[in-house]
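During the first year of the project, the team set up a workflow for recording each protein of interest as an amino acid sequence followed immediately by a discrete structure-token representation. This format lets reviewers and collaborators read both layers of information side by side without switching files. As required by the reporting guidelines, we include two representative entries from the current panel. The first entry is reproduced here exactly as it appears in our internal archive.
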Amino acid sequence: MAEYGKIIVRQRILTLFICCLLVRNYCKAGTVTTKSTLTARIGFHPTDFECTYTVDADENVHAGDISWQIENTTGSENFETLAEFSPPDAHGKHNQFASTATGSDFKSRSVLYDVVNSGVNTFTAVFRLNEIRCEDEGNYRCVVGFSTSSGSYTKSSNVSLMVTVPAEKPYRAPVPLPDVIEEGTKVQFSCTANVGKPPGNIKWWRFKPNKAVPDHLGELSTTPTMVEDVCVYNLTSSILAYTMSRNDDQSVFRCSVSNDLVKADKDYDNPHEDTKTIRVLYKVGSPIIEVTPNKTEFTAGSFVILSCNANGYPSPLIDNHINYLLWTFTPHGKSDDVILISNNGLLSLENLQHKDSGRYTCTAHNGFNGKTFSSSNHVDLSIHPGKTENQSNVC
């Protein structure tokens, strides 16, 4: 009984094989192939839709039997014809776009190439889309109709097009709010940019003076959901409560944008916008005093230079009635201060005598927003009587 079953199976296979030899329509030997996916980048190179088909010995493909179609989600038909092609042996027939709104739209920005023989019984039909638009994203297919002595049939192959967009430079430079910044102020920065498609990211950086590599301050953690026919993703990223310190003075804050199509070697070199140089108002710190020559004990008749400087913004070196440096002198054993005339913190002491021994104090002053600040530092100098000529010769 088992042997009888095997004989039946062999007979059915033989019958099917004979059918394929005699009736090509049943076997459908022709093939149609395309890429399964294409990626098109807006603003860059054109995109080629390439369809390759093969025909068997007794098959024919006639003018108009080759077409590229686009999926139509709004109409009653699933796919709408964009263009029809003619095989190489179709004399007097030409490739043409469909006389529809969609066909006309693609005609204005596409090229149809002649079908070419690309191998033994193999042909290729290509249309090139020169201008990519966001709404071009979707499903396409190549359809080929085959004719045989016993009938006709069609085969098709689908390709999915994804449209991509590079991230773009932010729309405007970020501005700190408030724009007048005191040390300790919580400042907000905001940046809006098209992060491209697929959606990218926005990152924040701080460039400090004399520092080659910026500090990474954070990045936008939310990315938009992919939406059909949307190529512009305008996102806003904000630093909401950045506390400013004197270490931020003269810094530049940067908002940079990147996605898969725009990636510099260093993230902070991606398309970006910078703030103007940030100035942070802060009170003066303790002055730094330098003595030239670098000592505190001198002989009578010596010449000494005292210099004073202090960090603060506004700088005390502005030298006006609010921001300035002041030297005072208090002789040893006395409590009264004497104001000394200096050149913006530079004090020259000539022909020093013993009476010039005492405390030299530099006070730095600055002010902003109706407030004033001061900070002092001092150095003690001792002036000793010089040796006489006779004393210098005593052994």
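The second entry, processed by the same pipeline in the following quarter, appears below.
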Amino acid sequence: MVEIQMSTLGLVDEWKKPAHGTQYLAALSASMGAMAVGSAIGYSSPASAALLSKPPTNTSDNTTSAPEWLAENDHQLSLTPMENNWFAASLSAGALVGCVVAGFSLNTLGRKGTMLASLVPLMLGWALIGFAQNIGMLVTGRVLCGLCTGITSLVCPTYTTEYASKDIRGALGSGFQLFITIGILYAYLFGAVVESWRWLVLVCAVVGGIYFLLAIFIKESPTFLLSKGKEEEARASMQYFRGKSYDIEPEMKALKESLEEAAKNKVSLSDLKEPYILKPLAITLALMVFQQVAGVNAVIYNINLIFQASGTSISDDLSSIIVGLVQVIATAVGSLLIDRAGRKFLLSFSAFTMSLSIVSLGVFFYIKSTNESFAQEFLGWLPLTSLMIFISAFSIGYGPIPWVMMGELFYPNVKEAAGSMATTLNWTFVFIVTFVFAPLQDAIHDYGAYWLFGGLCAVNFLFCVLFVPETKGRSLQETMAHFGGPAA
């Protein structure tokens, strides 16, 4: 009798638990967009090294085949340092526009439709880069790829947080950053193998094709469907994500009530003075700024050039691949820790460790400027080690968590406006930091630039300790109550 009761209780518990398989599958499909973004980000490092190192040459042979033509035209196009700055940073400029476009398309095309539409500029951008004859075509192609990047960085986290159940929301949300790092590593790996930066374009564009094929089959977000009055479709979508045996009625009721409340309480600029909106908005915006002023994208976009400047005996391509692999592993570890260790602890640990590691990289370049032979003979290991630790610390905390918290700190009527603002600000600082990185190195030397990033990371650490709330395991209502918000 006892065994029967225990068996029955176990069955009831299973009914109370949402299914995870369909949620992981949807996360994988959406995260391929993040991998496409990552390959676009990572592409600039091997491509920049090739474009800067190859002077233009002339050829009089007009009878070459297509592969030979591409190989010859690799050598015909080269960039100055300033042109390379534009080449690297223009992706971020396109992402700024993409954030604005995403803000409109999320509510018109839906989450799924926005994902599919974002692939049009991505593929056009890769085509322009692959057949580029001048800096204008390169920059325009990068801007188009950036347009997809900005759209994807808003739509994928939004989509994931809307269908994910609370028990795995953090892990699924951090998957976006994990697949960005996989895309970056993918570009680094093939950048070391594929000699032509033009053929590397084709390799990176393949990821976008896979993303398109997977995105066709995903279910639309229940939140979006319900917001459009399609209750039966929303119910079917929610049941798909939660499993056939799961009782979705309490969750659907709560979602419906929150959307009705959001419709009654449209946010205006005057509402931003409300503490329960202003405080989480300020924290979210600050997290996005601190994520970028740590200098991580300046490092990722130019990592081959950084290792070239260090003059160490380890090859530039191998060093880049090692750092990229460490980034993937650390991001995966962060995905496992985020719902265990909590957001606040991981952010604080991340900022503190990034500060120490980037300062140590600056120490190497300072010693190199005063005694180059000593630095290369006895400290040649330090640049790779410092960057491995720096990227690991970023990937565990500051890489995924600001995007996860962006979906956890706002009511539905605030989330889209706040998310668009935060994403736009993020990519603004990606552009600023990436574009000023080389001039900053010229102005205050390599070591000065890295020490500046380290100081900003130290300020970031204090901000996390003093102002960032813990959202692990909290419902939206509990989180907003922390800021004095009304019950939804």
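For the second entry, the following points were noted during internal review. DSSP finds 21 helices and no strands in the chain. The CA atoms of residues 110 and 224 lie 7 Å apart. Both points are flagged for discussion at the upcoming steering committee meeting.
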